[in-house]
């Protein structure tokens, strides 16, 4: 079963393996398969579910609602996000303006068929909207009971600090950040994690398996497996390309003997490596088939000793990206056209 961790400096607990439906629901898999994977997640003890209005242009939220129908609402933690263009993608159908945040929360609640979301997240930083406007709107959404907690995604350390200060002045708190993080992509370690620890914020990390590369299934010098994410332009193929070179894939193969020594799979080792960091509240995992979750959730019961953690670092030291400046490049400097 899956263990729980507090989200930031709050009393709110989430499952440390959280189910995310970014590239699967209403895109990579049909609705029946999506429902089956969510039901499997529930059976395995996952109660936290992450989505976004932009996933499949709002359709992923609809599919998640279908999959969770009939579940006791109080026993679920439902997260969604707002920022990227949705719907007709007009000038006010994007960003973090008060207009879009209010339209966004109402649309997400309607599609998810709930009265509130547990966590509402700014999907990126909006350079075109005053931060004061954004945080005031979030404050009002919390006071109206439409979201219980507020988080962000891929904000820099400086942005986290400024947003946290405004939230505190407005009487609520930022509890989380949702960045990319894995043993191959460690850019948040330099500034974002130390700042978050200081501010009482946690990370809910996406791509903890580097889009599947950290399962060890992609082999150097070999074609990518048929049906894998690397072959499907709708399921994150562009995101995986940066890792599909022989230097990275050769280094990842060094994880196999480390995992064998620990009696676990490479995927479990990679997830346990992420969860070894106490500032990580949850690792987001997805699945196109229910049986994929059976392997990954077992990472919740694995505690790596320091020697194993160090062995992973040594194996990937020549290929892991650690430059904290990468965090400055994620949010667009202007809203998408």
In short:
With 337 residues, this protein is α/β, with parallel strands linked by helices. It has helices at 31-43, 59-68, 98-112, 131-143, 157-170, 192-199, 237-240, 246-253, 255-262, 266-275, 291-296, 306-316, and strands at 4-6, 13-15, 17-20, 48-50, 77-82, 117-122, 147-152, 174-177, 202-205, 280-285.
What percent strand? 5-15%
Sequence of secondary-structure elements:
EEEHEHEHEHEHEHEHHHHEHH
**Runs with pLDDT <50, length 5+?**
none
What is the CATH-assigned architecture?
A: Alpha-Beta Barrel
Q: State the helicity in percent bands.
A: 25-40%
Rg over alpha carbons: 19 Å
Domain unit count: 1
Highest-level CATH class? Alpha Beta
Q: Counting H and I runs of at least 4 residues, what is the number of helices? A: 12
Strand count, sense and closure of the main sheet?
A: 8 strands, parallel, barrel
**Termini distance?**
44 Å
- Estimate the global geometry from the Cα principal axes: globular
Protein name: Aldo/keto reductase family protein
InterPro entries: AKR, K_chnl_volt-dep_bsu_KCNAB-rel, NAD(P)_OxRdtase_dom_sf, NADP_OxRdtase_dom
Keywords: NADP, Oxidoreductase
Family: Belongs to the shaker potassium channel beta subunit family.
Task: Characterize the structure shown.
By secondary structure, the protein is an alpha/beta fold. It has one domain: TIM Barrel, CATH 3.20.20.100. The protein is 36% helix and 13% strand. An eight-stranded parallel beta barrel has the order 3-4-5-6-7-8-9-10, surrounded by five helices. The chain has a two-stranded antiparallel ribbon with strand order 1-2. The termini are far apart.
């Amino acid at each position: 079963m899956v263990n729980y961790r507090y989200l930031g400096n709050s009393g709110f607990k989430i499952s440390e393996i959280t189910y995310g439906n970014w590239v699967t629901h209403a895109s990579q898999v049909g609705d029946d398969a999506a429902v089956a994977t969510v039901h499997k997640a529930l059976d395995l003890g996952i109660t936290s579910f992450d989505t976004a209005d932009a996933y499949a242009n709002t359709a992923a939220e609809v599919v998640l609602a279908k999959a969770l129908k009939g579940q006791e609402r109080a026993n679920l933690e439902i997260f969604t996000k707002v920022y990227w263009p949705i719907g007709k993608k007009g000038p006010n159908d994007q960003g973090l303006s008060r207009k879009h945040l209010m339209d966004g929360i109402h649309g997400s609640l309607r599609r998810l068929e709930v009265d509130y979301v547990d966590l509402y997240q700014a999907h990126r930083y909006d350079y075109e909207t005053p931060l004061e406007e954004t945080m005031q709107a979030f404050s009002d959404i919390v006071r109206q009971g439409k979201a219980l907690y507020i988080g962000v995604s891929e904000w820099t350390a400086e942005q986290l600090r400024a947003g946290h200060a405004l939230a505190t002045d407005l009487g609520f708190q930022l509890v989380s950040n949702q960045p990319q993080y894995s043993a191959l992509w460690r850019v948040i370690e330099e500034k974002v994690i130390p700042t978050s620890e200081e501010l009482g914020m946690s990370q809910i990390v996406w791509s903890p398996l580097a889009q599947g590369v950290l399962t060890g299934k992609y082999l150097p010098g070999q074609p990518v497996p048929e049906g894998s994410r690397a072959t499907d332009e709708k399921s994150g193929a562009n995101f995986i390309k940066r890792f599909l070179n022989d230097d990275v894939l050769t280094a990842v193969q060094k994880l196999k003997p480390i995992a064998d020594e620990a009696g676990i799979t490479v995927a479990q080792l990679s997830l346990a490596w992420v969860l070894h960091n106490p500032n990580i509240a949850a690792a987001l995992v997805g699945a196109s088939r229910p049986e994929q979750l059976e392997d990954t959730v077992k990472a919740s019961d694995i505690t790596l000793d320091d020697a194993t953690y160090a062995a992973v670092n040594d194996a990937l030291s020549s290929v892991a990206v650690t430059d904290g400046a990468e965090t400055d490049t994620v949010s667009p400097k202007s809203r998408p056209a």
